[in-house]
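Example S7 (structure tokens).
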């Protein structure tokens, strides 16, 4: 009977923890540089979080797909379609939540399309929606194709995306203004339903840039297959020092593959820059390389050398309920924002309000000595700790919420 790879749970949990940490600062204007996304080209530690999670989705698929292949097409399609629709719907629910918002002193309904400004509305896509779409298409590829064919298809997708970006984009094909995908997203999604955080309608989780992101999942799946084939589960819980030589092939294989992909990604970035917001092909290869190197190192430390301590347990707890806690971390702050607390009078004599979260940040975290980034980061850690307590309670009660 196949056991769980503890290191994969820790990897997934660490990724979710980092997603929560970087998505919940005390102030978006006061963040340490590594906790920010690259303004456009480039790759910061924060830019690794989402591709690492997609990679982890592929890892998990390597355990599920063989069972679905044994069960047959009907079971496969039922499971994959159901899971895709649910994850996508949850993501859309988060975007719309809490369905009302404060406008001056009035709670107004958040319309699908704002009747007073048709360029504003509820965003359709987002992180969970991209996970759903990537999971759907990667599952089909993994289910119907052998590993060698998956490598070929994945490479073709990445090269095809590069060609499309270069020939369809103008005048600078890899810039915000020149990237071809925005025009397609506008036509299909509509301006009202797109992200506008860049100051213009542009969706970093848009339909077009989801194409190369699918490969992030297929690469994770291939890595999972490699781990399963090279190392039988029987050795994972053995006392490592006696079996280091025996498992040299697995660890060294992961590190070599990771290094080769790292070099390819770096060279490719010279002509196709690393860019998370349009999810360039070089970004896929580069981040996959770092994910494989990380997984290889974690397997060596956790499974072989048996390094299991408070830190691994901390992340493992997040890995047990990753989707639930990520969703909760998005819903809770928005819900709390509905309950306003009087916060004095401004210079114009108008009453101002805050909420419990902002009050906690302003009166406790922001008061910590040092630059404002310290207080903002302290709030992120407090929020992460609160989410961990919830995950720990669920784990102790053996409650695992899955889709």
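Recovered sequence:
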């Amino acid at each position: 009977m196949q056991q769980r790879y503890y290191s994969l749970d820790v990897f997934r949990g660490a990724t979710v923890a980092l997603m929560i940490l970087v998505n919940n600062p005390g102030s978006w204007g006061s963040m340490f540089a590594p906790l920010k996304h690259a303004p456009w080209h480039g790759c910061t530690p924060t830019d690794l979080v989402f591709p690492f999670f997609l990679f982890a989705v592929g890892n998990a698929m390597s355990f599920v797909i063989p069972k679905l292949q044994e069960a047959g097409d009907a079971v496969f399609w039922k499971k994959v379609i159901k899971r895709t629709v649910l994850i996508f719907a949850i993501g859309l629910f988060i975007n719309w939540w809490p369905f009302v918002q404060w406008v001056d002193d009035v709670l107004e309904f958040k319309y699908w399309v704002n009747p007073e400004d048709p360029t504003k509305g509820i965003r359709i896509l987002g992180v969970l929606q991209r996970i759903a779409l990537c999971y759907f298409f990667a599952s089909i590829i993994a289910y119907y194709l052998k590993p060698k064919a998956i490598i070929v298809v994945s490479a073709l997708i990445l090269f095809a995306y590069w060609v499309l970006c270069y020939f369809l984009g103008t005048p600078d094909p890899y810039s915000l203004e020149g990237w071809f995908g925005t025009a397609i997203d506008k036509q299909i999604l509509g301006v009202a339903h797109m992200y506008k955080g860049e100051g213009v309608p542009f969706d970093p989780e848009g339909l077009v840039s989801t194409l190369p992101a699918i490969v992030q999942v297929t690469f994770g799946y291939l890595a999972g297959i490699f781990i399963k084939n090279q190392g039988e589960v029987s050795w994972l819980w053995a006392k490592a020092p006696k079996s280091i030589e025996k498992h040299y092939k697995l660890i060294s294989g992961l590190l070599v593959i990771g290094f080769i992909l790292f070099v390819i990604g770096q060279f490719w970035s010279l002509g196709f820059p690393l860019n998370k917001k349009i999810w360039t092909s070089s970004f896929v290869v580069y981040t996959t390389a770092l994910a494989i190197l990380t997984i290889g190192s974690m397997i060596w430390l956790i499974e072989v050398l048996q390094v299991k301590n408070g830190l691994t347990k901390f992340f493992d707890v997040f890995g047990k309920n990753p989707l639930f806690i990520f969703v909760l971390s998005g819903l809770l702050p928005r819900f709390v924002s509905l309950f306003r607390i009087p916060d004095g009078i401004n210079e114009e004599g108008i009453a101002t309000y805050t909420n419990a979260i902002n009050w906690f940040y302003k009166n406790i975290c922001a008061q910590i000595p040092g630059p404002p980034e310290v207080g903002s980061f302290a709030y992120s850690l407090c929020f992460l700790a609160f989410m961990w307590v919830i995950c720990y309670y669920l784990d102790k009660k053996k409650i695992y919420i899955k889709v």
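Notes on this example. Residues 123 and 193 are 4 Å apart (CA to CA).
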